[in-house]
Amino acid sequence: xxxxxxxxxxxxxxxxxxxxxxxxxxxxxxxxxxxxxxxxxxxxxxxxxxxxxxxxxxxxxxxxxxxxxxxxxxxxxxxxxxxxxxxxxxxxxxxxxxxxxxxxxxxxxxxxxxxxxxxxxxxxxxxxxxxxxxxxxxxxxxxxxxxxxxxxxxxxxxxxxxxxxxxxxxxxxxxxxxxxxxxxxxxxxxxxxxxxxxxxxxxxxxxxxxxxxxxxxxxxxxxxxxxxxxxxxxxxxxxxxxxxx
Length: 245
Prior knowledge:
Blueprint: H1 2-7, E1 12-20, H2 22-29, H3 36-50, E2 57-58, E3 64-65, E4 72-80, E5 83-91, H4 99-111, H5 122-129, H6 133-143, H7 147-154, E6 157-161, E7 180-193, E8 199-212, H8 218-234, H9 236-244
Parallel strand pairs: 4-6, 6-7
Antiparallel strand pairs: 1-8, 2-3, 4-5, 7-8
């Protein structure tokens, strides 16, 4: 609730698009070491590394602070005390790691949440929720003006996958907790006409995002989306993993 209240005070650019991932899904079906979610996380991290303004933060003095590493905050569904909970986990330096490596870390954290560096902040969380609501929300609202603290607590970019838990097309818009927050939506089968005139059914992945307009303008965002779509469709993140092996 505090995060939602803080997000309403920021200047947001929402955007969404679809990417033809037919060929990528075919490759992932033959590769149990990478999921569609970790493939998207890896591709987003690579794209942000090429467009560093997308995860820059404007501090309390108005200076734009950029980072060398892309630390991606993801939401992992974990079981605690017999119940399922969404848990934040930060994949550090995701742009410098393979999709298979990211997938392995998420698999370990899902099986054993105590292995997550992010979960170790539980003591701080318990202290935070005892404070009065106005003070909590003031702190949450100021977090995105503290670059180092935000990076340490929740990373520099957020990626949430909801489409993998449902069926069909569609996407929503997440809260803006970072300069860039991405939501992975559902899959949609679309009939398309190939170059030779044949009719094909292609799989399209819905993607949506929100961006801090105080840091990123519309034209750089458009370039980033075009680059991200091209790399999502090309399978470049999987090619990098193959060459590394």
